Structures are given as C-alpha cells and as structure tokens.
Amino acid sequence: RPFVSLRNDPDYFSDLLSVEDLMAHFSRNDISGHHLQIVHNGVFVPPSDYTYGAQASGKDIVLVDTRKAFKFFNAGATLFLGGLEYSIESLRRFYHEIVSEFNCPAGLTGFFTPSNSQGFSPHFDDVDVFVLQLFGSKRWKIYNCPLPYATLTADCTAFPENLIHDVVLQPGDTLYVPRGYIHEAMATDQASFHVSLSLSQFN
Q: I need a labelling partner for 150 at 20 to 30 A (CA). Which of 91, 124, 176, 203 fits?
C-alpha cells in the first residue's frame, strides 16, 4: 500500500541535488530533446515547439531550447525531465546504488511544476514509484482503487473518490505509490521539483 514519510527535514536530500545543480543543468545548451517533455493541462506539448535540430560528430541530433521551454513553464506547464541518471553526477551515483540494492530495472525522472499548477490529471503508473520532494511543495492525492497488474492500456477514466492520502510533501519528504494506484498532484503556492524513482516489477 502507499505510504508517506514526512520528515520535517528540508536538508534530507541536500546531497542528492541542490537548487544550484538544477539551474546549472537548465543552463546547459546540450540537453537532449529525448530527455525533456513538457505537459500543459494534462497534454504533452509537441517537441517541435521547444526543440531544434543540430549536428554533433557529423550526426543529426535534437536539442532543447531552454528559453522556449521556460516560456511554457511560466505559463503553467510542467517540465518532465528523463534520463537524470545520465546527466547529473549526484543522481547517477544514487541511481547505481539503487539498482545495486534492489537488483531490478529503475529510472529517475524529474518534475518541475510552477506554483498552483498540475501537470497530469488522475492516472496510474505501471511501475512502483518513490517520490522524493527536493524543492518547493506539492499536494498529492492517492485513491484506494488499486490495479495491481495495471498496464498503460488499462482504463482509469472512472474511479471511486475514495482517498487514502491527501498530503502536502515538503522538501525532504518521501511518498511511495505502488504500481496501479491512481494519483494526482498539484504544486502549492510555490514552484515544486521532485524526483520520481521508478522500480519495475518482474511479473
């Protein structure tokens, strides 16, 4: 079942990623278009609206125009960062520790959401997810209607409004959302950045 750890310790994840580290990442001019998606009002923004073509070592590549990406962010969109285990050294080390400990496929994804905004409508994931709140705060709702063998093709358009968690995560807090539990999240009156650690089951 889902569980929440409210630590009241804003520095708990300070070794994992700092605000300066995050801003340094966004200041790079080599962020792959494959590692950033933008979600606005539950809809993915076409990559062509914030990426551009370039060449590296004679190969065609797609890069992120961060100025365009942050225009969407300032308009209420969530920046959805994949592949963090490849692009930020502290998260790379953390990723390898997790894979070694759990011995299963894993992934790290960052979610940068502006204040009073929600990236996704209620949905479930087909992996187990640990939410690590790094900066800002976010209100999470978890519903008691698990789909234990959920796949991305399962229907979650209708579900009982039976909340088991309605909680605001602050920096240092952790939330565990098992595979198949419908959930939604909205940033509070401050921008939020959290990292989702996903673990895949072998069934």
A: 91
How far apart are alpha carbons 158 and 179 in whole angstroms? 17
Question: Which H or E element spans position 146?
Answer: none
Contacts of 94 (CB under 8 A, 6+ apart): 16, 85, 108
The answer to whether the CB of 187 falls within 8 A of the CB of 39 is no
CA 167 from chain centre, in angstroms, equals 17
Secondary structure class of 72 (helix, strand, coil):
helix
Question: 9-23: per-residue pLDDT in tens?
Answer: 999 999 999 989 999
For the four alpha carbons of 99, 102, 108 and 110, in that order, the dihedral sign comes to: negative
Q: How far apart are CA 78 and CA 194, in angstroms?
A: 11
Please enumerate in sequence order all residues whose Cβ is within 8 A of that of 8, keeping only pairs 6 or more positions apart, or say none.
170, 172
Q: Is the pLDDT of residue 157 over 60?
A: no
